[in-house]
Amino acid sequence: EEEAAYNAKIAQVNNILKGHFSSVKRYLREEMQRYADNLQFERAQEIKVQYDALDNYQGRSTVVNPNIRDVDVFSLDVESDTAYFNYLKVVDGAIINTFTMELDINLDDDKEDLLVFAIQTLREKYQSIAPELIVPIEIPNVWDKTVITIPKIGDKKKLLDLSEKNLAYYVLQKKKQAA
User: Fold this and answer.
1) Sheet-wide strand order for 82-91
2) What pairs with residue 99 in β-bridges?
């Protein structure tokens, strides 16, 4: 009994780390109900505090339309001998990771190949299996069961814009350091 409860809690922590808030909230709601049914109102109240804290946290971390479930967003900037990539990992409508990577390149490397390489590298690093990629340019689709979107308007475009702003800021900081 105790071990099962402990394992259930660990599973919920993992869900939070992966950004799967809805399943954690469902679990907490069920726990609250169970304690209330057993007239353990103080315990139910403690769970409610946890639930509200999670709700509040999710509210702050969500900048996305919740209808946009799991997507990976990538942007790139190519300077003379360096390519920069920004990655936003969106799970359950919330950005749970953001990372900027740089790569030394040759003049004849083309943008599309560089972006495909960066996407493969970053998806592997962050163990992403998101079914949709949001990118700024057309690239070959080398991923099974994955949709590639180049948004022009709407919330997906806002995500791409955010990724590009992150990238521009990163490149600007690099230039300041080099100066």
Assistant:
1) 94-104, 82-91, 71-78, 132-134, 147-149
2) 87
> In what helix (H) or strand (E) does residue 136 lie, and over which residues does it extend?
none
Query: 75 Cβ partners below 8 Å, 6+ apart?
Result: 85, 86, 135, 136, 160, 163, 164, 166, 167
pTM above 0.90, yes or no: no
Q: Identify the weakest region by mean pLDDT among 5-9, 21-25, 62-66, 83-87.
A: 62-66
71 forms bridges with which residues in the sheet? 90, 132
Query: Can you tell me the distance from the alpha carbon of 160 to that of 179, in angstroms, rounded to the nearest whole number?
Result: 29
Q: Give dist(CA 19, CA 121) in Å, integer.
A: 21
Q: Give Cβ neighbours of residue 78 (< 8 Å, ≥ 6 apart).
A: 84, 105, 111, 114
Nearest to 72 by CA among 144, 160, 179, 5: 160
Give residue 71's region: left, alpha or beta (phi > 0; psi -120 to 50): beta
Tokens of 169: 């800021």
